[in-house]
Write a structure and sequence with these properties.
It comes from Bradyrhizobium iriomotense. This is NnrU domain-containing protein. Keywords: Membrane, Transmembrane, Transmembrane helix. With 144 residues, the protein is an all-alpha fold. The protein has one domain. Helices cover 75% and strands 0% of the residues. The protein contains five helices and no strands. The longest helix is centred in the middle third of the chain and has 32 residues. The radius of gyration is 17 Å and the shape is elongated.
């Protein structure tokens, strides 16, 4: 549930950050802009940290029980993508302080490029982690 909430928050914030600031009300981006993108920053930081902590707790089970089975079945591409996921999540964790500082007030006269770039990078990392985790979990029916 934490990962789904994180996906929703970062996706909403990313679309709002990329959307035009002068979007007309009622349009696709206008609806995303009706909620200030900055209001998601604290939630994203907390949800990312909690999701990483929970992932670290269940990682031992994956490493001991699941990974050897995937290796025996020669699912090297899945393991490679999962290893990339681990590295990306660590990079995202290191980016969280910069991300949080960029979304703090005052936002009025600051250029949005840094916020948009950091939000997009985190969105990519979060979506990559979510999808790779599901593929690794479901590739041989684990966790069902």
């Amino acid at each position: 549930m934490v990962a789904v909430a994180l996906l929703g928050a970062i996706t909403h914030q990313t679309l709002a950050a990329w959307g035009p600031a002068d979007a007309r009300p009622g349009s696709f981006f206008g609806r995303f802009r009706s909620i200030r993108p900055a209001s998601f920053a604290n939630a994203v930081v907390v949800l990312y940290a909690v999701s990483t902590l929970l992932g670290g707790i269940i990682y031992l089970t994956f490493r001991v029980d699941v990974r050897p089975e995937l290796e025996r079945a020669s699912h090297w591409h899945v393991l490679g993508f999962f290893d990339l996921k681990e590295h990306f999540v660590a990079i995202g964790l290191a980016l969280l302080p910069a991300y949080w500082v960029c979304w703090r007030p005052p936002l009025a006269n600051e250029p949005p490029q840094t916020r948009t770039a950091l939000t997009s990078i985190l969105a990519f990392i979060i979506w990559w982690g979510f999808l790779c985790g599901h593929v690794a979990n479901n590739i041989m029916g684990f966790g069902s």
